[in-house]
Amino acid sequence: MTSIEHLNTCDEEAFVAAVGFAFEHSPWIADRTWPRRPFASRDALQAALCDAMYAATVEEQTKLIVAHPDLVGRLAREGRLTRESTAEQTAAGLTTLTEAEAAAFDRYNRAYRERFGFPFVICARQNKKEAILAAFPVRLANTREQEIDAALAEIAKIAKLRLTDAVSEE
């Protein structure tokens, strides 16, 4: 665990190494946030990181969404998720699915990607498999713009939890 005090004094490379993981395979968010130091708290850091995410172009935001794995997707089945994604999917009960549940995830993931062009993103640590499955049909009714907004809001939740685990207030 690193401290907010350390993050406020470290160089850009160390800062990105320490918090860049919070946004799946997208260290550019931390890179853009580094110049805004010092941060009064972990919440201030989180807000600054999210400001960088929301200030990005739609193309950059879409690339951020695309960087997330499908829930219960091929990468999960092959054990190739990041440590954080693996823990998050496990916490949601996504590693102990019945065949019918796994088939439902496959169908929904495919339909969602076909409709929006990016994976379905939800904060798995704040949901269980039943809630996630129930969210798919609701969100499939959204427009692409609404889904970009929804995905970014979920990414912000994911990042907040990851930062809480990795950054102390001292």
Explain how this protein is built.
The chain is mostly helical and 170 residues long. The protein folds into two domains: 62 residues, Orthogonal Bundle (UraD-like); 87 residues, UraD-like (Orthogonal Bundle), CATH 1.10.3330.10. It is built from ten helices and two strands. The longest helix has 23 residues. It is globular, with a radius of gyration of 16 Å. The mean pLDDT is 96.
Brief summary of the model shown:
This protein is mainly α and 170 residues long. The protein has ten helices and two strands.
Counting DSSP H or I runs of 4 or more residues, the number of helices is 10
Look at the structure and name the CATH superfamily of the largest domain: Oxo-4-hydroxy-4-carboxy-5-ureidoimidazoline decarboxylase
Report the structural category. Answer: mainly alpha
- Proportion of strand residues: under 5%
Output the helix-strand order: EHHHHHHHHHHE
Termini, distance in Å?
Answer: 11 Å
Round the mean pLDDT to the nearest integer and report it: 96
The CATH class of the largest domain is identified as Mainly Alpha
Name given to the CATH architecture of the largest domain: Orthogonal Bundle
Q: How many runs of DSSP E, i.e. beta strands?
A: 2
Q: Quick one: biggest sheet? A: 2 strands, parallel
How many domain units?
Answer: 2
Q: Percent helix among the residues?
A: 55-70%
**What spatial order of strands do you see in the largest sheet?**
1-2
Shape, principal axes of CA atoms: globular
